[in-house]
Write a structure and sequence with these properties.
Strands 1-6 form a two-stranded antiparallel ribbon. The protein starts with 5 loop residues before the first strand and ends in a 37-residue tail after the last helix. The longest helix has 24 residues. By secondary structure, the protein is of the alpha+beta class.
Length: about 180
């Protein structure tokens, strides 16, 4: 996503998170609600968890730079001669681009989300995309199946004789993507 005048983007609390303790920032998950949707006590993350939308409203803010044209021009340089000039050329300009930038920003977010939706659900017609989305929503709203006592794959922590957090070899994992 790129808009020339936007010099910073934040999701949810964004940069404010750096001034708070984690316990005041993390969105507590209460459990599942109707239709399998996760319920959060807050939306400090702005609708994203680990870079993936989490069902909460998507909150995006952009920081817009001041417009380039000033009513009281600053010293500058002549672009043809390279010589210094006391003040830049002034042309009529808007006093604020914020209203227009809001419309452009919202459109850019929508285009980006539409692109991601097409990547996920595919299809070459709106009917097909809606059908794919409907089947996805139905699938994720089902109660999760309980973990199987069968090994999931050779060498995994679910292998016979392995305790959670260890591999069949007895080697401990970090809990990450070992």
């Amino acid at each position: 996503m790129s808009i020339n005048i936007v010099k910073g983007v934040e999701f949810g609390l964004g940069f404010e998170q750096t001034r708070r303790f984690g316990s005041a920032v993390h969105d507590i998950i209460e459990g599942r609600g109707v239709g399998g949707r996760w319920i959060h006590r807050s939306n400090n993350a702005g609708g994203l968890t680990g870079g993936v939308t989490n069902g909460e409203p998507l909150v995006v803010r952009g920081a817009v730079k001041p417009i380039s044209t000033l009513a009281k021009p600053l010293p500058s340089a002549d672009l043809l001669t390279g010589e210094a000039v006391e003040k830049a050329h002034y042309e009529r300009s808007d006093i604020s681009v914020v209203p227009a930038a809001g419309v452009v920003g919202e459109a850019m977010v929508m285009l980006t989300l539409a692109d991601a939706m097409l990547d996920k659900f595919g299809g070459d017609s709106l009917v097909e995309i809606r059908d794919n989305l409907g089947r996805y929503r139905e699938r994720i709203s089902r109660e999760p199946e309980p973990p199987s006592s069968e090994p999931s794959s050779p060498g995994s922590s679910a292998a016979i004789g392995a305790s959670p957090g260890t591999f069949a070899s007895g080697e401990a994992g970090s809990g990450g993507d070992d």
